[in-house]
Design a protein that fits this description.
InterPro entries: CBD2, CBM2/CBM3_carb-bd_dom_sf, CBM2_carb-bd_dom_sf, FN3_dom, FN3_sf, GH, Glyco_hydro_b, Ig-like_fold
Pfam family, one: fn3
Largest sheet: 9 strands, mixed
Strand content: 25-35%
Helix content: 10-25%
Keywords: Carbohydrate metabolism, Glycosidase, Hydrolase, Polysaccharide degradation, Signal
Radius of gyration: 26 Å
Protein name: Cellulose binding domain-containing protein
Number of strands: 36
Strand order of the largest sheet: 17-16-19-14-13-12-1-15-18
Number of helices: 9
């Protein structure tokens, strides 16, 4: 979080005032459906990530006078918060734990580390501590580890090295304190190595995290003068062997960005694999600051809550092990009216009870939950540690859906209606699960509600979603779930070509009957496509498409037809032909975070041609062509066609041409991977 925001928040928190409780907002009218049924497809065979113990998190800050208060901890516990981060955003890089000071900032009473840990324990959470990189030392951080885990026995597992250290001025903007003369990513990475060595010498069991830039968020993609690559490339290449997780921060600034999460996390994993090398799969991903953070309002009202629930579910389903809301308390900001309610422009989960500087608007009483609080509470009741997310699809953009399978076989389905004025009936279909008859348990939170309501209503296949609502239904399976085989282990892919791959997996444990075979499914949205089956623990898969990302799961089927849970997901991307009559190389030459200059080198490996046409597609809807040169460029929808200039069409055998373009993007920038020259798929180099 930028320090400017922290200063404003800390100033507001100095004036905490106890106010009378607000009048409860009117509950949303449970009107009759006024829209066609939305088709929701739940695919219990399409397993995604398991729900982590630390998934639901939040940030605490040393400028918050209520950090150590019992009622604050009790509120967080009731929301299901399982991880608390300390000492608070950019304050981390000015904070000295031993004397509890932050030169240049405000430190509130009763916010020292031991007080924080008492609150963590009362909440029933784990702690994540950010060591001071900007103005601290490795020795200071190691002493903190000794105090926490050796002297006090707190068992703090997760330790970050610094906070948003790319904001130290190296790329132009500066909000993060950094006393190092060298502010490059290489210098940061060298210190991460030193910190990791010193801190693990104090307690070898801890996990060390390094700061990365988030794909498509500044300064991701930018290479500063004198650097060997982007921040992420340099940090991972040096510090990769020493770290256990990486740190992302995300303030999307809009309510419709959850669709970008899968690419965001996949690109991060690719960067980790490329930078950290062999064994990098052990490195986890934590989103240690997240807030919907819109300038148009909605931070304390229902649109922000709906976006929060959607983002939390999507991030965790993609394997992020903690998503930490910014912040527990933050302070009043720009006040507006959003969907019939006052939005206080406050980034906190709970009210700080503060007023505007003019005193004309005051927040509700201290620790009153804002709408995003109920999003975290709904998430903790929907997806519990040890559950497994499964894939869901809907045919209505205003309705988002997520699902998680529980160890006892129950299935929880979270339905989010973002429409301001339409109640949507939903028709829910299931693959890989037959729901029991009868009404399911239903949890609902509507616009302006001061609590999540519980009821038994509708059916497993039919519900009605009020406008601006979150609804969770818990569906029980029909028939007995006893004696089924265990889930196969984590699959891996090998021998991946443009059209084939070999998928292998650890064997499943048998239930009451022997395992007869394994089935491999490709999972796309709510639909499963069986790629094949095997009596062993590997399968050669064919008929794949070049340059395509595949996510597959394996299930075990026993001799009586009983089916296991899905394995953890495997994602791999096919390549392009090893040999072709043409080859293409795309390079990102200069990137500025929302666009880039690309160069495409085309080589003709076949017979001479007198004219050529190159075709490719943008992988994502947030990508587009800005301009192009050295050829005639056109775009229709996501498709780009490039035709040689009138005088530059001849390509002899072995001949080449270089063309260039400006590509624009407003989300994770997955580069085009498949190119055709005169209709032939080229080898992409």
């Amino acid at each position: 979080m930028h320090k400017a925001r922290l200063r404003a928040a800390s100033a507001a928190l100095l004036a905490l005032t106890a106010l009378s409780a607000p009048t409860p907002a009117a509950q949303a009218d449970d009107a009759a459906p006024d829209a066609a049924p939305v088709a929701v497809s739940v695919n219990a065979r399409a397993g995604l990530a398991a729900v982590p113990q630390t998934g639901i998190g939040s940030n605490h800050a040393i400028w918050d006078t209520t950090l150590g208060a019992d009622d604050t901890a009790d509120r967080l516990k009731d929301a299901g918060v399982k991880l608390l981060r300390y000492p608070g955003g950019s304050y981390s890089d000015i904070y000295h734990w031993a004397d509890h000071t932050a030169p240049g900032g405000y430190v509130a009473p009763n916010t020292d580390f031991d007080t924080f840990m008492r609150g963590v324990r009362r909440t029933g959470a784990q702690a994540m501590v950010t060591a001071n990189y900007g103005t601290g030392t490795a020795e200071e951080a190691a002493a903190w580890v000794r105090h926490a885990n050796v002297t006090k026995g707190y068992g703090v597992k997760y330790w970050e090295i610094g906070n948003e250290n790319y904001g130290n001025g190296h790329y132009g903007s500066a909000w993060e304190a950094d006393n190092h003369a060298d502010k490059s990513p290489a210098e940061y990475a060298r210190h991460v190595v030193a910190y990791a060595d010193a801190m693990k010498a104090a307690d070898p069991s801890i996990k060390i995290g390094a700061v990365l830039t988030t794909p498509a968020n500044w300064p991701d993609g930018i290479v500063a003068g004198g650097d060997a690559g982007t921040w992420n490339k340099v940090v991972l290449s040096i510090a990769g062997p020493k770290i256990d997780f990486v740190i992302l921060h995300w303030y999307p600034g809009a309510f419709d960005k959850a669709a970008q999460v899968t690419d965001m996390i996949q690109l991060t994993r690719q960067q980790i694999a490329a930078g950290a090398g062999p064994g990098s799969e052990r490195i986890g991903i934590a989103m240690t600051e997240f807030n919907t953070g819109t300038s148009s309002g909605g931070t304390t009202t229902q649109p922000g809550a709906l976006a929060a629930a959607d983002a939390y579910a999507t991030l965790l389903a993609n394997g992020v092990f903690s998503v930490d809301w910014w912040n527990v308390h933050n302070g009043i900001g720009t006040v507006s009216q959003v969907e019939g309610h006052t939005d206080y422009g406050d980034f906190g989960l709970l009210s700080s009870g503060t007023c505007t500087s003019a005193g004309d608007v005051c927040e509700p009483a201290l620790n009153t939950p804002f709408a995003p609080y109920y999003a975290l509470q709904m998430m903790s009741r929907f997806a519990r540690p040890g559950d497994q997310f499964v894939r869901v699809a809907t045919d209505q953009p205003k309705v988002a859906a997520h699902a998680a399978r529980r160890p006892n076989g129950d299935l929880a389905v979270l339905l989010i209606n973002t429409s301001s004025d339409t109640s949507y009936p939903v028709a829910i279909g299931y693959t890989g699960l037959t729901p029991a008859a009868g009404a399911p348990s239903v949890l609902t939170h509507t616009n302006g509600a001061a609590a999540i309501t519980s009821s038994t209503a509708g059916s497993a296949t039919s519900q009605t979603l009020p406008p601006l609502s979150m609804t969770t239904i818990v569906v029980r399976p029909a028939g007995s779930q006893a004696g089924l085989p265990g889930a196969p282990g984590q699959p891996v892919a090998s021998n991946v070509t443009d059209k084939t791959a070999t998928v292998s997996w650890p064997a499943a444990s048998a239930g009451t009957r022997p395992i007869a075979k394994y089935e491999v499914y490709r999972n796309d949205s709510g639909v499963s496509e069986q790629l094949g089956e095997s009596r062993g623990t590997s399968l050669a898969v064919g008929n794949l498409k070049p340059g395509t990302r595949y996510t597959v799961n394996v299930i075990a089927r026993d001799s009586g037809g009983g089916v296991s849970w899905a394995s953890p997901p495997l994602t791999f991307t096919t390549g392009t032909p090893a040999t072709s009559s043409c080859s293409v190389r795309l390079t990102n030459q200069t990137d500025w975070g929302s666009g880039y200059v690309g160069a495409i080198d085309i080589t003709n490996n076949g017979a001479p041609v007198s004219g050529w046409t190159l075709d490719f597609d943008w992988p994502r809807p947030w990508q587009s062509l800005g301009s192009g040169w050295s050829a005639v460029w056109t775009q229709e929808g996501s498709h780009v066609k490039v035709v040689n200039e009138p005088t530059g069409g001849a390509l002899p055998t072995g001949g080449s041409a270089t063309i260039g373009f400006v590509g624009n993007y407003s989300g994770p920038n997955v580069l085009p991977a498949v190119f055709t020259l005169n209709g032939t798929v080229c080898t992409t180099r």
